[in-house]
Amino acid sequence: MTLLQRFFLVVGLSFSSLLMATGQSFTVLHTNDWQSRLLGFGPNTEYTPETINDDKTIGGVARLATLIDQRRRELDGQPVLLLDGGDISQGTLFHTLYRKHAPELRLMRLLGYDALTLGNHEFDFRPDGLSKMLDAAKGHLDEIPAIITSNLELPPAQRYLQDNGTIQKWKIIEKNGIRFGLFGLIGKEADEVSPNAKPAVFAEQIATAKFMVRLLREEQKADVVILMSHSGVVKNEDGGWEGEEIEYARQVHGIDVIVGGHSHTALHEPIMVNGTPVLQAGSDTRYLGEISLELEDNGKVAVKGYKLHTIDDQIIGKNAVTEKVNTFKALIDQEVMAGSPYSFNQPLVKTPKTLTRAYDDQVLGNLVTDGIRKAAGSDVAMTTNSLIRDDMLMGDSGIQSVSDIFRLQPLGVGNDNQPGYPLMKVWMTAQELRGLMEIMSFAYLIKGDDYFPRLSGLRFTYNKMRPPLDRITSIELGSHETGFTPLDLTDKTRLYSFSASSYVGSFAWVMKDLSYGLVSIIPKDKNGNPLADLKLSIVDRLPAEEGIQEYKNWQAQLDFFASLPDTDGDGIANIVLNKNVTEPRMQTISSFKPDDLLRNATWILWTVTGLLFTILLILFVIGFRTIGRIKKNG
C-alpha cells in the first residue's frame, strides 16, 4: 500500500467514524382524524385550492398534498415516513362513498402514505362496511397504504382481511438502511364510542404494546419503533397532560415515537414522556406534523426539531388531487343525492355569523334540534353537543351549501344499511320526560360538555343546589313563536311525543339500568302501548310507500334549513337570530331559596333532606352528651 493510499484510507475511516458519531437523520410526517374532510374547514363553496390568498379555508387534501410533496423534496436524501393516526373517514358527504368507492384511502395512496392505523369511525358502517371499503380500495389501486392495528380481532366474516395481510398487526419498513418497526392501537375510549364495531374485539392496549415492542425489537431487529395510536391525550387545568397515549409512553419501554389521534389535539410541540415524543396534528386535514429525528450510534432516537404546519390558502392545491376530489363530488350527486332535490354544491341557507358548538353558544344546538322536531312532528326533540359534528362557519358570504349542512349531523348508519342515523319518535308521560331531562342535564356535569343536552319544544330550570336527579324545578312546553305552557311534572297519564336520532333515542330503553332504577322510562306508541325495541319507533320519511323509508337525521337538517324564510329575497333561506333560537333552553341556577329548593321536589330530595336532618340530629346529640360529660367531669 502506497503512502497516498494509506492517507486516503485514514481519511475515509475518519469520515465514516464521524458519520456514525453524528447518527442518521430521518423525518416522520403525520396526520390524524381526516374524517373525510377533503375540502378543509370552511364553507365548501369558498374553498379555492387552485389559487392562493383568496379564501379563509383551513385544511383541504389538495393543499395537504402540495405541502407533503414540498417537504419530501426539501428532505431529499434522508428517510421520510408519512403516517396517520386513524379516523380517516366519517363526517362529510364524502364518507357516503366509503364502502363503494373508498375515497379517503385512495387519496392517501395518491399522497404517498406509508401506513395508517384504524380509528373508531372506520367501524361506523360496521365491520362489514370496513371490509367493503378495503375491498373497494384494492379494486381501484395496485397497492394500498399499510393498515396496521395490533389489538384488533375481527369477527369470522371479516377475518380474511387479517389473514391476507390487508390489515396487519405490525410491519417493518426499511429506508436508507434504517429498519422502522410500526404497530398500531385503538384505545379504550375509542372502543367505547364505536358500538358498531361489534363483534370485533380490541385487546388490552398496554399488554399489546409491550408484546409488539418486544417482537419488533428482539425478533424483527427494528432500529426505530413507532406506534400509530388512535387513543388521545387530555390537557389538565394545570397545563400537564394525561390520557392513553401518555400512558403508552409512560408504561411501555422501547417506543421511540407515538403518532397519535382521536382527541383532535393540535400539538405545536411534542409531549415528551420518558424521552418518547407523543404527537398529534389536530384534525380535518388542517395540519401536517413534521418531527425531525436522529438515530444515534448507540441506538437511541433523539428529537432534533418539530413543526406543526398549518394548511391554508398560502399553499396552492395539487391539481391531480383536486381532480380526484371533483370526481367524488360528482359521484355523490349521481348516487347519494339521486332522486332528491339537493346537490353537493347547492346553496341552501345563509347565516349572519359563525355558529359554534360551544355549550354556551345556543343558536346552532337550538336550530339542529328544531330541525329534528319539525321532521318528526314531535312535541319535544333532543340531541347532545357531541353529535353536532361541526360549526357553521360564516366565511365571506355566510352561504352554507348542502355539503356544509350535512356535516352538522353526519354520523351513523340505519337498519337500512344507508348512511346516517334515522330519526325515532316515541311517546312519554310528563314524569318520564322530566326523568330524561334529569339524566341528560346531570350527565354533562360528570362526562363533560360533549354531553350537554340540546333541546327543542321545551325549556326547563335546573337548580344545582338540589340533589342529582331531582334538580329540575319547572318544565315548559312550546316556543317563543307559539308560547310556553307549564308541564305538570306529576302527571302520569297524558302523553307527549319525543324525537331524537336513533343513537340518542336508544338510551330511553336502558335509562332504568343507567340510573340504577332511579329513573324509569317506557317508550310508547301514540296510543300508550309499550314499544319493545327501537326499530318500532323509526320515523318513516315516505309513509305512502311500502316499508319503512328511514328519515335520516342529515336529511332532516337539509329539509329544515331549506325551509327557513328567504328574508332578503336572494333565493336562499336565511337564519334569523330572534329570541326563538338565541334563548337558552336549559336555565341553570344555584339557589337556596325555599321556592327553588322545594318546587316540584320528588322523593329523592325528601330522602336526602331526611338523611341530612338525621345526621345533624345525631351529631347534635353526640355533641350535647359530650359537653355534658365534660361539665360533669370538670
What is the gist of this entry?
By secondary structure, the protein is α/β, with parallel strands linked by helices.
Shape verdict: globular
So what's the oligomer here? single chain
CATH architecture of the largest domain: 4-Layer Sandwich
Strand order within the widest beta sheet: 6-4-3-2-1-16-17
| CATH-assigned fold name of the largest domain | Purple Acid Phosphatase, chain A, domain 2
CATH homologous superfamily descriptor of the largest domain? Metallo-dependent phosphatases
Amount of beta strand: 15-25%
Question: How many domain regions?
Answer: 3
Summarize the structure in words:
- By secondary structure, the chain is an alpha/beta fold.
- It has 3 domains: 21-310, Metallo-dependent phosphatases (Purple Acid Phosphatase, chain A, domain 2); 337-589, Alpha-Beta Complex (5'-nucleotidase,  domain 2), CATH 3.90.780.10; 602-634.
- The chain is built from 19 helices and 28 strands.
- The strands form 7 sheets. A 7-stranded mixed sheet has the order 6-4-3-2-1-16-17.
- A hairpin with a 5-residue loop joins strand 16 and strand 17.
- The longest helix has 31 residues, at 603-633.
- It is globular.
- It starts with a helix and ends with a helix.
